[in-house]
Amino acid sequence: MAIESGDEWWRTAVIYQVYPRSFQDSDGDGVGDLPGVTRRLPQLKSLGVDAVWLSPFMQSPQRDAGYDVSDYTKVDPLFGTMRDFEALVREAHALGLRVIVDMVPNHTSSDHKWFRKALAAKPGNKARDRYIFRDGRGRHGQKPPNNWQSVFGGPMWDRVLDGKDGSVLPAKGANGKPGQWYLHIFDSSQPDLNWENRWVRDKFKNILRFWLDRGADGFRVDVAHGLVKQGGLPDYTPPAEGASMGGNEAAEPYWGQPGVHEIWREWRGVLDEYDGDRALCAEAWVSPIERMALWVRPGEFDQAFNFDYMFARWTARDLRRVIDESLTAFGAVGAPSTWVLSNHDVIRHATRLGMAGDPPQGDGIGPRSPYPVDAALGLRRARAASALMLALPGSAYLYQGEELGLPEVIDIPDEARQDPTWKRTKGKRYGRDGCRVPIPWEAEEPSCGFSPTGRAWLPQPGEWAAFARDRQEGVPGSTLELYRAALRLRRSKRLASGGVRWLNEWSRSRTVVAFRNRSVLVVANLGRRPIGLPDGKPLLESAPTRLGRNGKRMLPPDATVWLRAGR
Ligand code: NOJ
What does the alpha-carbon distance between residue 154 and residue 6 come to, in Å, rounded to a whole number? Predict the structure, then answer.
């Protein structure tokens, strides 16, 4: 059934992800904050984006960089105050930018008062039923209730002490006898909520209203495929070693269970109480795309991150396939496709695309990585990939710093690494710190303008100054100016509401991706040799085109060009 699509802003929006800890520090503690974001909003406006998505800034002990919330209606003092948030929204709206808040409903922090109460309560008590507590296996309940492995490494269960301390084992000096186990898909400090529980559901509806009342234009919803677990919690061993955020096509008992959709329909109802097209975007790592499209059926989410696109291999066939599949699957349910190449959980695409072999999806890399990186090739391809992405119809997500061409930082000293994955796997997996290093603004300033005191919660590499925004601003050919031009043209040529028509000449090519979107021809050369281009004035080039001997304009390898199409 074809569904008419409307003109809601999010259908065509470019949404810029701000990772607040690493964006701009204003108070000098080396951690970015909300006043820092507000200060830099004019620069985001001048980049040409439509909205910012703020990764979590709510109260949190920061064991998973804020994805472990201990109070959903407070701003963590690390990031500022509620007034700072309100000022940020005011300023953003005055500039015509929307603000998307990150909501983390799958789990709370273990510091959350709901979990403290659950620990102090007896098994079977209603406070415990808000989380997923179970008796252990074995004669004395000494084995976890099942074999599930946490996404960050190690078992998905931890045991608690029954008794007055309400502590989690192993707790030094704690009193009480070993009791039940609780489930945590991620770190042990992130206990999963029980979404079968009505009380939990109602609480979250009010949390949504709290932020909508304060001007939030929508939510990015964390782990939107994980809230409901298969009944009976059966043992399950994932196909690949090292648990992933999902994405396997197999029916996994903690990802993509059909019951999650009922929750999203309730959330949609809450957003619909408000005016102004408030948006819901799902982080749902499910595959294939047809399955992901279930999250964006009418009455649920508006958008879902397109992870298949993010991880498409750098080959013409793979890109054409995933673009076709995305437009078909999302289009069939009346949703725009989204496009994304980087975020705070994956290796930055300027590095990923320069890695030899087929590197793992998700986790970061480090200096002892078995995947050698060609940085120059990575940057070249990243620019080509971004230019291709920004010509596609639908909504695109950018991750802070990609507009500067920032690479993944692979040589963070071991002692500086912070990701719980690094700790839980005892250094076997590097985790995601490499894409979270504070970004450079002004080359000559301490910490490249990130913090007034020059501090940075993760060390910035020496070469960061070369990527600083002020070194690129107004410089023809810089990555920043490439993004700006792409966003400007995307808007003026109305590409986001256009469509993709593959150019016949290259529709089966192994090395060229070429399509027409409205009045623009987009050609990406993924091969090893320059290719001759059709006639048309170049509007945007990720690398310079040159006139060949035969008078034809030539596109070099690993480059994308936008041309004005003939009639
Ligand atoms: C997905 C988030 O993007 C990631 O950063 C976080 O660690 C997990 N969800 C757990 O909340």
Answer: 46
* Alpha carbon separation from 250 to 156, 181, 291, 322, 444 (Å, rounded): 19, 26, 11, 19, 51
Are 387 and 353 contacting, i.e. CB atoms less than 8 angstroms apart? no
Interval 39-95: pLDDT, tens: 999 999 999 999 999 999 999 999 999 999 999 999 999 999 999 999 999 999 999
Q: Which atom of ligand 1 is nearest to the CA of 106?
A: 11
Question: How far is residue 373's CA from residue 460's CA, in Å, rounded to a whole number?
Answer: 19
Mutational pocket test of ligand 1: of 21, 68, 185, 186, the residue with most ligand atoms within 8 Å of the beta carbon: 186
236 contacts 252 by C-beta, under 8 angstroms = yes
**Residue labelled with tokens 């608690």:** 160
| Closest protein CA for atom 11 of ligand 1 | 67
| Helix H or strand E encompassing 484 | helix 479-492
50 Cβ inside 6 Å of ligand 1: no
What long-range pairs does 319-324 form, CB within 8 A, spacing at least 24? Answer: 319/388, 319/513, 319/524, 319/526, 320/502, 320/507, 320/513, 322/289, 323/392, 323/500, 324/500
Cα(288)–Cα(311) distance, integer angstroms: 12
Burial class (CB in 10 A: 0-12, 13-18, 19+), 314: middle
Residue range 201-248, pLDDT digits in tens: 999 999 999 999 999 999 999 999 999 999 999 999 887 755 567 766
Cβ(64) to ligand 1 under 6 A?
A: yes
Burial (0-12, 13-18, 19+ Cβ within 10 Å), 373 = buried
- Residue 435 DSSP symbol: G
Q: Is the CB of 158 under 6 A from ligand 1?
A: no
Q: Which of 296, 231, 219 is nearest to 257 (CA)?
A: 231
For residue 255, give the nearest of 217, 294, 216 by alpha carbon: 294
Bridge partners (DSSP) of residue 538 are 563
- Which atom of ligand 1 lies at the shortest distance from residue 104's CA? 11
Helix (H) or strand (E) holding 262: helix 260-271
Please report, as a single letter, which amino acid is at residue 419. D
Which residues are known to be catalytic? 222, 273
Whole-number mean pLDDT of the chain?
94
Nearest CA among 283, 236, 287, 271 for reference residue 106: 283
pLDDT for residue 3 is more than 50: no
pLDDT at 176 over 90: no
Q: Taking the chain, what is the end-to-end CA distance rounded to the nearest angstrom? A: 32
